[in-house]
């Protein structure tokens, strides 16, 4: 297991090896271990969105809200690619949640992205690309950023 899955920590390797140990069948030598073929992991990453750019603080509230959400979407798009580059290829899914910078219980962007979706979604449109990744995001309602609804947040965890 050490050579096949070098990214696993020693404790995790031991736990997996123990889990794959079964009761031997009678009369068969070395028959108490199943052969590990693949380990797949999922990562969940949450971060706080950046606040409105200092230069935009004097703009009308509705424009500030749109600018804030657009920046959060750009940041999210950038982070998704970097996360998949940073983690081992055995991590095939990453769940992301972006929280509002002032009220951290408000999720404004969320989704579960599969590694294989990165190569399939080459849309030049930022919002379309994120939608194709399976990302849900808030909308601007007047001068406010609406948090994702409970239904949207729940559907993310069931994906």
In short:
Helix content is 37%, strand content 20%. With 159 residues, the protein is α+β, with helices and mostly antiparallel strands.
Question: Any overview of this molecule?
Answer:
It is built from five helices and six strands, in the order αβαββααβββα. The chain has helices at about 10-20, 60-85, 115-120, 125-135, 150-159; strands at about 40-50, 90-100, 105-115, 135, 140, 145. The protein has two domains: about 1-40, no CATH class; about 40-159, no CATH class. With about 160 residues, it is α+β, with helices and mostly antiparallel strands. The model is unreliable at about 150-159 (pLDDT under 50).
Helix and strand topology:
Elements: H1 10-19, E1 41-48, H2 61-86, E2 91-99, E3 107-114, H3 115-120, H4 126-133, E4 135-137, E5 140-141, E6 144-145, H5 150-158
Parallel strand pairs: 1-2
Antiparallel strand pairs: 2-3, 3-4, 5-6
Question: What features would you highlight for this structure?
Answer:
4-stranded mixed beta sheet, two-stranded antiparallel ribbon, 37% helix, 2 domains, elongated
């Amino acid at each position: 297991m050490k050579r096949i899955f070098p990214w696993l920590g020693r404790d995790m390797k031991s736990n997996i090896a123990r889990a794959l140990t079964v009761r031997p069948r009678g009369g068969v030598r070395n028959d108490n271990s199943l052969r590990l073929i693949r380990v797949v992991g999922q990562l969940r990453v949450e971060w706080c969105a950046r606040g409105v750019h200092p230069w935009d603080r004097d703009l009308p509230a509705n424009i500030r809200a749109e600018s804030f959400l657009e920046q959060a979407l750009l940041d999210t798009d950038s982070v998704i690619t970097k996360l998949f580059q940073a983690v081992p290829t055995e991590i095939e899914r990453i769940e992301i949640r972006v929280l509002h910078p002032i009220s951290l219980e408000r999720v404004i962007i969320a989704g579960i992205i599969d590694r294989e979706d990165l190569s399939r979604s080459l849309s030049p449109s930022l919002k379309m690309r994120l939608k194709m990744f399976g990302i849900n995001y808030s909308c601007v309602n007047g001068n406010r950023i609406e948090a994702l609804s409970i239904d949207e947040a729940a559907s993310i965890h069931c994906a």
